[in-house]
Specification:
Elements: H1 2-36, E1 38-44, E2 49-52, H2 54-59, H3 71-77, H4 83-94, E3 100-107, E4 113-124, E5 130-139, H5 141-155, H6 165-182, E6 185-193, H7 196-203, H8 205-221, E7 228-231, E8 236-244, H9 249-261, E9 264-266, E10 269-271, E11 275-282, H10 289-305, E12 311-313
Parallel strand pairs: 11-12
Antiparallel strand pairs: 1-2, 1-5, 3-4, 4-5, 6-8, 6-11, 7-8, 9-10
């Protein structure tokens, strides 16, 4: 009798210990999800019932239990520009084409924008129809901001905020590809300051930096949204003008020139800049980035040689014809 009682108590203690361990494990998982800002969801597709773990309420800007989760509530929180991509990814997963994994933005009730990473998978019934959609959501706003910061350091000029040489190289290739696809023209504009060195020599590099910063702001806010203006050297700038007509290139470039020639005020001192500009055209002058750059650079050098503030169009470099050997 005593032995049986001891065994029973031992089983009770063992069962209690297992329950405590399970509870501790669940508590650890909940804390881990909370601090990692990870939540789980389960969508019963046919009944349109959506379950959210407690963490998801906070991820979407709500107190736990403040709203009743539903697919409509979820999709209405997705940023309008991201709704199509989210629903396309969902449909692809429900059709069995691919795993569901996506980054997208949501809009909180206070109108702030937040980035999420979501992954999931679909459970199918015996007939192969989607039955349940389950997955996780993680808040990645801070990580996105960090990535954007380092991306900006890598691709943008620290002083002016304009694209740097590396980003320019990417964009000129992309622009040529678009021009080929749409059978359109683009202009590559090389611009070199003529009177910047005297400013540095007379007033110091700190003042020169302020002049360049002011110029960068002027260029960023006064050019077409489809165009790229980059700083590729100390006093060298380049512009990619996309989808232009041959008869409007000069007008756009003259507007660009005027941005350089307008005086810049630094500490009540007016600074005047000179500019020399060379232009090459795709596809008239060249069909690849390297040749376009060469033609525009040569045209800019000719403009500089002919006097300040001049604009010169380049010309295609003639290809040498192969010589034929004389018949003996």
């Amino acid at each position: 009798m005593t032995a049986t009682l001891l065994i029973s108590k031992g089983k009770i203690r063992q069962a209690t210990t297992l329950k405590e361990q399970k509870k501790d494990e669940l508590d650890r998982n909940r804390r881990a999800h909370y601090f990692a800002q990870v939540g789980t969801w389960d969508w019963q597709i046919n009944d349109d019932i959506l379950y959210w773990s407690d963490e998801i309420y906070a991820i979407f800007g709500y107190q736990t239990g403040e709203i009743t989760p539903s697919y409509q509530k979820f999709i209405s929180a997705v940023h309008p520009d991201d709704v199509d991509s989210v629903q396309s990814a969902e449909q692809a997963c429900m059709q069995g084409d691919k795993h569901y994994e996506i980054e997208y933005r949501i809009v909180w009730p206070d109108d702030s924008i937040h980035w999420l990473f979501e992954s999931g998978d679909v459970l199918f019934d015996r007939d192969g129809k989607p039955e349940r959609f389950t997955g996780i959501i993680r808040e990645i706003t801070r990580a996105k901001k960090t990535n954007d910061y380092y991306r900006e350091l890598a691709h943008y000029d620290k002083l002016t905020g304009l694209p740097n040489r590396e980003l320019f190289d990417q964009r000129i290739d992309e622009a040529i590809t678009r021009a080929q696809h749409h059978n359109s023209m683009l202009a590559l504009v090389f611009m070199d300051l003529n009177t910047f060195k005297p400013i540095n020599d007379q007033y110091g590099h700190s003042t020169g930096d302020q002049v360049l910063q002011a110029l960068g702001q002027r260029l960023k806010h006064s050019t077409r949204s489809i165009d790229t203006v980059a700083r590729v050297g100390g006093d060298e700038f380049v512009a990619i003008l996309e989808d232009v007509k041959s008869d409007e290139v000069l007008k756009i470039v003259e507007n660009l020139r005027s941005l350089f020639l307008q005086p810049i005020a630094i500490d009540k001192q007016l600074f005047h800049l000179g500019i020399s500009i060379g232009i090459s055209l795709y596809p008239d002058d060249a069909s690849d980035a390297e040749a376009l750059i060469h033609v525009a650079d040569m045209a800019m050098y000719q403009a500089k040689q002919s006097g300040e503030n001049n604009i010169r169009f380049g010309h295609a470099v003639p290809t040498a014809k192969p010589t034929q050997a004389k018949a003996e």
